[in-house]
Design brief:
The protein contains 19 helices and 22 strands. The chain is α/β, with parallel strands linked by helices. The protein is globular, with a radius of gyration of 24 Å.
């Protein structure tokens, strides 16, 4: 049991392991390995104790992985035996169960099951069974409370420690069996009987909540909604989805897009109809590209497609290029950049961002991102006069940084992990492909009105060109992409972006890496200066919600992300960086480079790989 625990990923972003019976991560069977059956029961019992209230309500859901059904049944029994009330939503997208938790556990949703006083007393939290974008034989859990987000770092680590203690105590097998025997079969049956009604409540909660996310809060939200709907009547737009059998197959997507006046088309639209790799990047986007191309030939309004991962909280886009006549998948960093410029333009359109007569932003506004998010975001934010703050990789870290910044008085509408794709739009606490797609829809559809009588793309062009970023004067899908500041970033799905390292002490690895970097750095910097104008560098680290600058000891980055930022003499301009961090959700060491020029990015990622390989070999 403890050996299995050592192989599990336990992090604030989720707990994950290979749950399939034979340990094959590509196994498509429903059977769960005995050790992971015990882990599922124990995880539910530990979360029940963590909630610390009498008869807390736990909302339970799952994605479409084949092992999910058995895991859910074991957890229902364990939760009930541990004194919880359980509402089982069945298969649901991660943002759906989180919106349901947010709106029901806080009393924000009335009607149906969640409206009765028994459910609203002693609120609890949610547990979602999923391994996100990991291969199909994997599974795991995400835990959260009534705010609709996963547990923040400190609390998540408390829960992890409680779980480790529970698993290490003597008599584990007896405790697991006792919990399963203690579950009242009548209560188990009631949970299943009510699940359809719970699912309908969840869909309603999600639809209400996501529309608030898309249009914003306050009086301006109605203006945004009307402007978008009116624009789509003049400029029709069709959306395509490759659901890949994900949890979004039974969520609100089709209904939401159709009711908003968008054409909608789908493939692989049945739960569990997983036709290709789960991660929505690279080759996985090819079927969606082909689908959009076929649709566009018949209906030229179909320009955009998306593919979610299995739990439906992350989705990357494909876009018809009006210059080439082809459809291509967008890189995760491009997707996040487009969403950011759209949502910042949204704030200008509604008047939430205010500027003086010289075009200087006088509102205190920010974007929160993770360490390896491309510096393209810094350029976009600077065009709007908005600050960028960085946290360590992990959605929970970025969400917690955003919460902190809002408490400090910042306007913060959009946040996310540019390196991983998707975005989180306030007041949501989780990525959602619907928020991503509708950010692009607003760019297309809102072409006038607002506080400056201009469309969102026109607002972006004006802001960008005022600060020296050249954009096209025409308006098509390719023009929107071309308007992004030019940066080239190593894709997380690229082979060169992953390394297997033997060294388990990442501080030690980074200290050894520092010696190699400093040994080669002077000569390399002279060469980079001749060809790219680079004349200096700075070491930074992101640990949790903090970004440490001017690091003198690279090992101080610990298990967080270590970044070397390269600068030019021009106003101390930052034009590139290299980055590294050991993944806490997969057994790999991730690296990347980001630069204004493609050749520079290629050169830097190769140098980064060679230094880390040498550092790892020296330690071994």
């Amino acid at each position: 049991m403890l050996a299995t625990m050592d192989n599990m990923i336990l992090s604030p972003s989720g707990w994950r392991g290979i749950f399939s019976k034979d340990g094959d991560e590509e196994n498509t069977g429903e059977a769960v390995a005995p050790v992971y059956r015990s882990i599922a029961v124990a995880a539910a019992a530990v979360f029940s104790g963590y909630l610390k209230t009498a008869k807390p309500l736990v909302i339970l859901g799952q994605d479409t992985r084949p092992t999910g059904k058995i895991i859910a049944d074991l957890m229902i029994r364990s939760f009930l035996a541990s004194g919880c009330r359980v509402r089982f939503i069945g298969i649901a997208a991660a943002p759906e169960i989180m919106a349901y938790a947010r709106m029901s556990l806080t009393g924000g949703l009335t009607g149906g099951l969640v409206g009765n006083p028994d459910v609203l007393s002693n609120p609890g939290g949610f547990c979602y069974i999923s391994a996100s974008h990991n291969p199909i034989g994997h599974n795991g859990f995400k835990f959260g409370l009534e705010d609709g987000g996963v547990l923040e770092g400190t609390e998540a680590n408390k829960l992890i420690e409680l779980f480790k203690q529970y698993m290490a105590e003597p008599g584990l097998e007896n405790r697991i069996n006792t919990l399963l025997e203690k579950a009242d079969e009548n209560e188990v049956r009631r949970v299943y009987d009510e699940s359809n009604a719970v699912k309908q409540d969840a869909l309603k909660a999600y639809r209400d909540f996501i529309w608030q996310v898309i249009t914003g809060e306050g009086p301006a939200s109605l203006r945004v909604s009307l402007a978008m709907n009116g624009g789509l009547k003049t400029f029709p737009l069709g959306i395509a989805a490759d659901f890949n059998g994900s949890a979004r197959t039974v969520s609100i997507d089709e209904d939401l897009f159709s009711s908003a006046g968008l054409g909608f088309h789908k493939i692989n639209g049945h739960p569990g109809e997983i036709a290709h790799a789960i991660i929505p990047e690279g080759d996985s986007l090819e079927s969606c590209c082909r689908f959009v191309e076929e649709l566009h030939k018949k209906d030229p309004s179909v320009l955009l497609g998306y593919m979610p991962d299995c739990d439906g909280d992350r989705g990357n886009l494909v876009l018809y290029d009006n210059n080439t006549g082809k459809v291509r998948g967008l890189d995760a960093q491009e997707v996040f950049a487009l969403a950011c410029l759209a949502e910042l333009a949204h704030l200008v359109w509604t008047g939430e961002l205010d500027y003086d007569e010289n075009g200087i932003c006088i509102s205190r506004a920010a974007i929160a991102v993770n360490g390896p998010t491309s510096m393209r975001i810094d350029r976009i934010a600077a065009a709007f006069g908005v600050k960028v703050f960085r946290a360590e990789v992990g959605e929970a870290n970025v969400v917690n940084l955003a919460r902190q910044l809002r408490r400090e008085g910042y306007i913060l509408r959009i946040l996310g992990e540019g390196s991983n794709g998707g975005n989180i739009t306030h007041p949501a606490s989780v990525r959602d492909p619907l928020a991503t797609v509708f950010a692009i829809v607003k760019l297309f559809a809102i072409r006038n009105g607002g506080n400056c009588n201009a469309g969102l793309f026109e607002i972006w062009r004006n802001m960008a060109e005022r600060r020296g970023i050249k954009t096209s004067g025409t308006f098509g899908p390719a023009d929107i992409i071309a308007s992004l500041p030019s940066f080239y970033t190593t894709s997380v799905s690229a082979p060169e972006a992953k390394l297997q390292v033997k060294t388990t002490d990442h501080s030690l690895l980074k200290n050894r890496y520092q010696k190699i970097f400093e040994r080669d750095g002077n000569k390399k910097t002279v060469d980079l200066n001749k060809r790219w104008g680079i004349n200096g560098w700075e070491a930074r680290a992101c640990i949790g919600t903090e970004e440490l600058r001017n690091l003198s000891c690279f090992g101080d980055a610990q298990t967080g992300g270590l970044k070397i930022v390269f600068k030019t003499a021009l106003s101390d301009n930052e034009i590139a960086f290299i980055w590294m961090r050991g993944s806490k959700t997969e057994p790999v060491f991730r690296i990347m480079a980001d630069a204004e020029y493609h050749d520079l990015e290629r050169e830097l990622i190769a140098w980064q790989r060679s230094m880390i390989i040498e550092a790892d070999a020296a330690i071994g």
